[in-house]
Design brief:
Helix content is 78%, strand content 0%. It is an all-alpha fold.
Length: 108
Amino acid sequence: MPTGSNAQKEHKRYLVATGLLAGKSQAVIAGEAGCQPRHVRRLAREPATHFLIRELLRPYGRQLARCTALAVSAIFRALQARKQTTEDHGAQLAGVGRLAKLLKMAQG
């Protein structure tokens, strides 16, 4: 593939989009894409990458809606926790945070 070709850039854009969805760091994504973290940041900000992320998440709309309901429930339980229980509220809230990031990416 020629250096700087459109196909190469779109492949990097795909790697950036899937890496962001997977929660990978910019350094890891850059290593996988064969570029610098600065290039990953630039691609991540482009509207075409946001569009690609929305399209990648589109098939999971129902699952994200169910996860949102579970996240609200987890927040409610964590806020009402008065003592340590068998449920790990910290882990639940970390999952809620990850869902929030996914929903933000889905919105563009």
